[in-house]
Design goal:
mainly alpha
């Protein structure tokens, strides 16, 4: 990593590289070559972030400064690379944006440590889920006609699979995996399904992707069992939170699940337990956790999504019970307390004796 204090050359700026050009020209140039200026500033921010991640916790002020820095980096990207942009995007264009999103995820995931307060940890989860949802938007733009609402299998019209597989790196696979964990943890199953379908398309093209799928299926199975036994207070479950943090527990400096293990036992546990493989790792590949491939992952996400919809339906029925088709007419209290006397027709030539308002009421008054 390069320290800014050791350099006397100023960083490139958008004016020096791009000048004033139209949106179409900037779009074609961005598609032709990687956006150099954002990449330089992202690497500069990551070098500072790596030093901050060595601390047990990151203060809110430092987190805010990093958020502002990464927002400025995001603004340097072309318009069609922005988070709220629409339209399809080539998978080969998203790696610089994914690097930025992953840096933001590492920043906020670091504050899941037990050394932080409960409110700070909850805020960290909120930010991680927000970043994961934003990353899912980029994946969805690379995968036309793919929706988390309808989890489908491979079809002959999925032309996006080839470009996504060729553009996928080990870094992209692990970032998608981290996003899937946090989205599933927060019951954002539609977005998690989009991530899982992207990982399924990559398949065995990257070996780390298989390990990520094995871990994700294990996590979803534990999540499914946990929701069936005790659906509430998931965020206070330290085991599920540790599993959702993924490879954060693979670092002796940042993990908290190894703190109670002795020095000798910790080394042995770290050797046998891998964050990518949730079961003990042996020398033989056949002894690894047997998983159901990506079809099993998608099937479990489908079950979780259906369970959430059923729960929302029951809550809606409990909150808004079905009303009867015929609603009884409620008369005013004054009418209910007083007997109704209909006045007989008055013949001509007869005089009507005035009655008090309390003993006689007209039909018009009732209406």
């Amino acid at each position: 990593m390069i320290n800014d204090d050791d350099c006397e050359i100023s960083l490139p700026s958008p004016k020096g590289v791009g000048g004033k050009r139209g949106d179409n020209a900037r779009r074609h140039e961005a598609q032709a070559q990687p956006p150099l200026v954002p990449i330089v500033h992202i690497i500069r921010g990551i070098s500072k972030l790596v030093r901050s991640l060595k601390e047990p916790t990151i203060s809110p002020l430092v987190v805010q400064s990093f958020d502002l820095l990464f927002e400025e980096c995001m603004d340097l990207f072309p318009a069609h690379h922005q988070i709220n942009a629409f339209g399809s995007i080539d998978p080969h264009e998203i790696p610089p944006v994914i690097y930025l999103q992953n840096a933001r995820l590492m920043l906020h995931r670091h504050n899941l440590s037990l050394k932080n307060t409960a409110s700070a940890r909850s805020h960290a989860i909120d930010k991680c889920v927000e970043i994961a949802k934003q990353s899912t938007r980029y994946l969805a733009r690379c995968m036309p006609n793919v929706s988390g609402e309808a989890i489908h299998a491979r079809t002959g019209h999925d032309r996006w699979r080839g470009p996504l597989t060729s553009a996928a790196s080990a870094f992209l696979c692990t970032h998608i995996w981290r996003c899937s964990l946090f989205l599933s943890f927060r019951a954002e199953y539609e977005d998690a399904s989009v991530c899982a379908q992207a990982s399924a398309a990559i398949g065995a093209a990257r070996p780390v992707n298989i390990a990520c799928g094995r871990y994700l299926e294990f996590f979803l199975q534990r999540l499914l069992n946990r929701l069936q036994d005790e659906p509430d207070s998931l965020e206070t479950d330290e085991e599920m939170l540790a599993l959702a943090s993924g490879d954060l527990q693979g670092s002796a400096d940042n993990s908290w699940i190894w703190k109670d293990v002795g020095s000798g036992g910790q080394e042995e546990q770290n050797r046998q337990f891998s964050p990518i493989n949730p079961t003990p790792v042996t020398a033989h590949e056949d002894d690894l956790y047997v998983w159901s491939n990506w079809d099993g992952v998608l099937d479990m996400l489908r079950r979780l999504l259906e369970g959430r919809r059923q729960e929302q339906h029951h809550q809606h029925q409990h909150q808004y019970p079905q009303q009867e088709a015929r609603i009884p007419l409620k008369l005013p209290a004054q009418v209910q307390q007083q007997p109704v006397h209909l006045a007989s027709p008055v013949s001509p030539g007869t005089s009507e004796t005035p009655q008090s308002g309390s003993s006689r009421i007209r039909i018009a008054d009732i209406m």
